[in-house]
Amino acid sequence: MSIIQKLKNKVRSKSLHVSYVNVGSCNGCDIEILACLSPRYDLEQYGIYVHNNPREADILLITGALCEQWDDKLVSLWEKIPEPKAAITIGNCPISGCVFNRRGSYVNPPVSKHIPIAASIPGCPPRPSEIVSTILSIAPEVFKDFEEKGKGKKKETKK
Description:
Blueprint: H1 3-12, E1 16-22, H2 28-36, E2 48-50, E3 59-63, H3 70-80, E4 86-90, H4 93-96, E5 119-121, H5 128-143, H6 146-158
Parallel strand pairs: 1-2, 1-3, 3-4, 4-5
Helix pairs in contact: 2-5
């Protein structure tokens, strides 16, 4: 990888765009994500920006116990995010279904059955500091060798 490509990847990892989706939760984790935007935690000081449009995002934050109605919608949403991309599950619900995962319920955990998950933050709900640190920790991995991966894909599709 050239020096310019390494520099691009380093700069990209300092400017992250996240989008979050609630797939059926009690909104406890959503409140903690919103607390990350408050002056106390200030996500934007780390170069992390929140978007409603998944087409502008690099990282998808997922909260809530995955309901049957979200099975296809979540996969469709994941496919709309451009490469490079990653997903983070926030809270116990997307990991295990937590208190909503009962016999006869419409909850279908874990989210990792449907899309690839880069990191999971357990807790009910997790602290905003944990959310911020997890996003920052996976940022270098999202853009690691992206230019090389992109070139490899183009060569394979031309054959």
